[in-house]
Specification:
Number of strands: 0
Mean pLDDT: 87
Oligomer: single chain
Order of helices and strands: HHHHHH
Distance between the termini: 55 Å
Number of domains: 1
Number of helices: 6
Largest sheet: none
Strand content: under 5%
CATH topology: Four Helix Bundle (Hemerythrin (Met), subunit A)
Radius of gyration: 19 Å
Helix content: over 70%
Shape: elongated
CATH architecture: Up-down Bundle
Low-confidence stretches: 6-23
Length: about 150
């Protein structure tokens, strides 16, 4: 019984930590919101760049579709998590609403493209997978440009 209680307490601690860590409140200022947007964009761009490496490996036949499927699935999950976290941040004012729309649209483009790539890898459709490289570069470039604009 002691082991059960210990495991239950540990599980409860993990759940509480996860719930508290997932709570994101409002950004207090426009600058704070822009910093959070910039961080989200930077982190999503990292997931997109990982996918670019995967597509490059697929193009050169240097990776199996099973490996690529897992890698692209993880990149998609990361980007989706970043988007979800950013969406949970309350903009401080109406001016920040426009930034939220711009960032969210770009994060959505990235998540959608990563999902398409994961699906192509799972279907072992290397032609579709490798043909999407320019789209990945475009999304990465747009993420980088917005990140630079935000400073």
């Amino acid at each position: 019984m002691v082991g059960y209680e210990s495991r239950l307490k540990a599980l409860l601690a993990v759940v509480v930590t996860a719930l508290l860590g997932g709570c994101v409140g409002p950004a207090r200022t426009s600058d704070d919101y822009a910093r959070k947007a910039s961080t989200s964009i930077h982190d999503c761009r990292s997931a997109v760049e990982t996918a670019r490496l995967a597509v490059d490996a697929a193009t050169g036949g240097r990776a199996t579709t099973a490996y690529l499927s897992v890698l692209l699935g993880q990149a998609e999950e990361e980007a989706a998590s970043i988007q979800s976290t950013f969406e949970s941040i309350q903009p401080p004012n109406a001016a920040a609403d426009r930034l939220r729309e711009d960032v969210d649209a770009l994060l959505s483009d990235a998540v959608s493209l990563l999902a398409d790539l994961r699906i192509a890898a799972r279907r072992e459709d290397t032609d579709d997978l490798t043909s999407r490289g320019p789209e990945l570069k475009d999304v990465s470039d747009r993420l980088g440009a917005l990140e630079n604009d935000l400073g």
